[in-house]
């Protein structure tokens, strides 16, 4: 068994680890996008609620209703602030997953490079053996037999 063949399990493991890291990164990217959509929905709801309040408030509004609106807007603002923190955490996680994937990819490429070097060396050695056999055969044909 050649050195390059002995490395097949290592190549398989490194490729598998890279795929797992890539999947984890992709999954985290999807989570991040979902969190960004939630933020966009919250902000859109806030804008719609504000516009609705302006329309209704143009005719006048009671103090109780005004206070309820203020409390609701404060809660909505808190939800938006919380969602921004969730997004920041998801971005950090995403960057960590990206780094892990890049490291796994780098390791796989390094293993591939070693295996390729071994294959190249093996091919050169095989070519030398074949050339030597050809040379030996040519020498035997050139010598007279007694």
Report on the structure:
This protein has 146 residues and is mostly helical. Helices cover 92% and strands 0% of the residues. The protein is rod-shaped and about 125 Å long. It starts with a helix and ends with a helix. The mean pLDDT is 92.
Count of helical regions: 3
Radius of gyration: 34 Å
β-strand number: 0
> Which spans have pLDDT < 50 for at least 5 consecutive residues?
none
Report the β-strand fraction as a percent range: under 5%
Mean pLDDT: 92
Q: What is the secondary structure topology, with strand pairs?
A:
Blueprint: H1 3-6, H2 8-57, H3 63-142
Helix pairs in contact: 2-3
Describe this structure in a few short sentences.
This protein has 3 helices and no strands. It is an all-alpha fold.
Keywords:
146 residues; mainly alpha; 92% helix; 0% strand
């Amino acid at each position: 068994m050649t050195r390059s063949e002995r490395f097949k399990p290592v190549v398989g493991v490194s490729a598998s680890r890279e795929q797992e890291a890539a999947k984890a990164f992709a999954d985290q990217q999807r989570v991040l996008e979902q969190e960004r959509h939630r933020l966009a929905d919250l902000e859109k709801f806030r804008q719609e609620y504000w516009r609705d309040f302006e329309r209704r408030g143009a005719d006048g509004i009671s103090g109780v209703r005004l206070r309820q609106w203020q409390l609701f807007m404060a809660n909505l603002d808190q939800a938006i602030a919380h969602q921004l923190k969730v997004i920041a955490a998801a971005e950090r996680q995403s960057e960590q997953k990206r780094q892990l994937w890049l490291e796994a990819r780098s390791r796989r490429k390094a293993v591939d490079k070693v295996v390729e070097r071994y294959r190249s060396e093996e091919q050169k050695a095989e070519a030398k053996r074949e050339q030597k056999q050809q040379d030996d055969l040519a020498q035997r044909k050139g010598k007279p037999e007694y």
